[in-house]
């Protein structure tokens, strides 16, 4: 009997087929762009991808990639920023040169006035008045120029701060899921790799995988319009918002794809990790999902959780495999529960905790 094709693998097949049919070159950045468009993680990206038309040039794809997947076009972003900074520095140097010239001219006027006043003998009234007028005019002009210089310098500083903010934002968005504002898979890959950065002394933590129970039914309920890949965005946003609200300890929470989430909790105690997982579950169930069509309550969202401790695994791959098995066990047993990959029950385990025995 053949093995069923997983949803993730199904999307992968669709992506490869679509790229072949549309004549899209098999570049890594193209694959991720098409994958994101078909998986429905970003409805705006999907709409703009479809709007390109049947013939999708590499230029059009790259323009879309720069907007939604900037990490593939970092060189372009940095080049643009570098050009902007060169312009800012050139303008600032011009201002300094202008200030230097103005100060030199002001110094000459002061010197001339000083010499005319310090001449030995009696100073006639006309010379004194003329010197005072010249000095007064030069001082007013210099004051005006200094104020303009200060304003221009402030504007330059603000412009530089905006460039810095753009770079910081670019760096942050490389690792943020656009639909929920949580960390994305790229960020999760980095985080889980750090757990075993020192294989002889892995970080003491727990990895949790979770998926929304009954998500396929929700996505097919007609709550979202457009292609199938867009259905369910409303519910994913709802869960993402609640995860933000309940995550008061600042634990690492990421959206992996579709309705799947990941949690990395820094603790060596299984009971503490499961207590925090229960907190996430309670938070998600604290507010009902509301229909976009008629405003009616669709009930509270629930998740199937699978948790594994880093101490049980020898690598990131093994840790993710253990958490995945535990999550599948939760889903198979009705969902709305957490399954711990362990051979013993933690102290204080609630009744709906399950133990996946390796």
From TrEMBL:
One Pfam family in the UniProt entry: GGDEF
InterPro entries, sorted: Cyclic-di-GMP_PDE-like, GGDEF_dom, Nucleotide_cyclase, Rev_trsase/Diguanyl_cyclase
Organism (species): Hoeflea phototrophica (strain DSM 17068 / NCIMB 14078 / DFL-43)
Domain GGDEF: 203-343
PANTHER family reported for this sequence: CYCLIC DI-GMP PHOSPHODIESTERASE PDEF (PTHR33121), SIGNALLING PROTEIN WITH EAL AND C2 DOMAINS (PTHR33121:SF56)
Database matches in CDD domains: GGDEF
UniProt GO molecular function: cyclic-guanylate-specific phosphodiesterase activity
Name of the molecule in the record: Diguanylate cyclase (GGDEF) domain protein
